[in-house]
Specification:
This protein is of the alpha/beta class. It has one domain: 3-Layer(aba) Sandwich (Uracil-DNA Glycosylase, subunit E), CATH 3.40.470.10. Helix content is about 50%, strand content about 15%. It is globular, with a radius of gyration of 17 Å.
Length: about 230
């Protein structure tokens, strides 16, 4: 019997966007761009998901360049990968502020084993997007940042959610990271497709770290209150 980890790894190995993106936007698929990413992320999933237990789904927006775009694991940068998960990455180092908050939540919840036995994290769009910024450097782009991009990837998003619902996912509730556009899109999608009983929004980790840093512990406790009242 395939474990939860096996199904995640299969999904990551096969996930690919073959549609046409608006001009100036390129896809970021870490599993196709760096062979080591699949190896490292697979080690993570075999460590924490090598069972058949059902879990609740948490969905972020889409991968960023310094988190899942490098490690293949949502909200996990290379620093957390090494220091918290015990999986070493020698070739590159990244720091993502959202990852800091998420791992604070994980530790407050009871640690990695407990958290990952109850939750599976991915993103509404499991692949990321990049554009060239004003200074010519590449910057992250969200699937909802332009109407044209949202339209281009909507079918892909639905397909990816449906594939992940073949995992042992609890469908009474899905947690959405982001109380604005990400929640609005996912909630509307859920109204149409009835993926979950309800969508529960949570303040996005990046928002907390960028605009509410002094109140971080308050937001950690908000997450815990929601998770512990399932």
């Amino acid at each position: 019997m395939k474990t939860f980890a096996d199904k995640i790894i299969e999904f990551n190995r096969s996930v690919d966007f073959t549609g046409v993106l608006p001009e100036g936007i390129r896809i970021m698929n870490p599993f196709r761009e760096n062979a080591e990413v699949l190896t490292l992320s697979s080690a993570f999933y075999k460590k924490y998901y090598d069972d058949t237990n059902p879990r609740h789904l948490i969905l972020g927006i889409n991968p960023g360049r310094f988190g899942a775009g490098v490690t293949g694991i949502p909200f996990t940068d290379t620093k957390r990968m090494k220091e918290k998960c015990g999986i070493k990455i020698d070739d590159f180092k990244t720091h993502e502020t959202s990852s800091v908050f998420v791992y604070d939540v994980i530790e407050a919840y009871g640690g990695l084993d407990k958290f990952y036995s109850d939750f599976y994290i991915n993103s509404v769009c499991p692949l990321g997007f990049i554009v060239n910024g004003k200074n010519g450097k590449e910057v992250n782009y969200n699937y909802y940042d332009s109407k044209e991009l949202t339209q281009a990837v909507s079918g892909f998003i639905v397909e990816c959610i449906e594939k992940q619902l073949e995992f042992p996912i609890k469908r009474d509730v899905c947690f959405c990271l982001g109380t604005g556009k990400n929640y609005d899109f996912l909630n509307a999608l859920n109204d149409k497709h009835n993926f979950f009983g309800k969508i529960v929004p949570l303040d996005h980790p990046r928002f907390v770290m960028q605009y509410r840093l002094k109140r971080k512990q308050e937001y950690v406790e908000k997450y815990l209150n929601v998770f512990n009242n399932l």
